[in-house]
Amino acid sequence: MNTWELLASDAASGRQIYKKDVPPAGTSNTSTYGTYDFKVAADFEVRDAEGRVLLTTHGSASGEYYCCVFLWFVDGSDGTQVRLEESNREDHPILDVPDTPQAT
């Protein structure tokens, strides 16, 4: 649960999206199957071709039968924009990915 997973790569820029699952706020586990109350949360990083972190963000979702959270490269943006999708929200914000790595 504490490891980063490669989700997507942008061929034009060499940028990559990584995801790490985290416990949803207020819970010690990710789901309660008896009540069909599902919750997920994840941290995301967009890294450049050298592995430097350009953008960090977090997403979470809950649902009665299904929920998910994803970060995608916006088609045609050449790695300069990502879209955060949280299954229980109608608004899926588009985030600009900066060219300058974050300070460590």
Structure characterization notes:
The protein is mostly beta strands and 104 residues long. Helix content is 0%, strand content 47%. The strands form 2 sheets. Strands 1, 2, 3, 4 and 5 form a 5-stranded antiparallel sheet that branches. Strand 4 and strand 5 form a beta hairpin. The chain is globular. The mean pLDDT is 87.
Give me the secondary-structure category: mainly beta
Q: Tell me the fraction of residues in β-strands, as a range.
A: over 45%
Stretches where pLDDT is under 50 for at least 5 consecutive residues are none
Number of strand elements: 8
Order of helices and strands: EEEEEEEE
Distance between the termini: 23 Å
Present the secondary structure layout.
Layout: E1 5-9, E2 16-21, E3 31-32, E4 37-47, E5 53-63, E6 69-73, E7 81-86, E8 94-96
Antiparallel strand pairs: 1-2, 2-4, 3-4, 4-5, 6-7, 7-8
Features of this protein?
104 residues, mainly beta, three-stranded antiparallel beta sheet, 47% strand
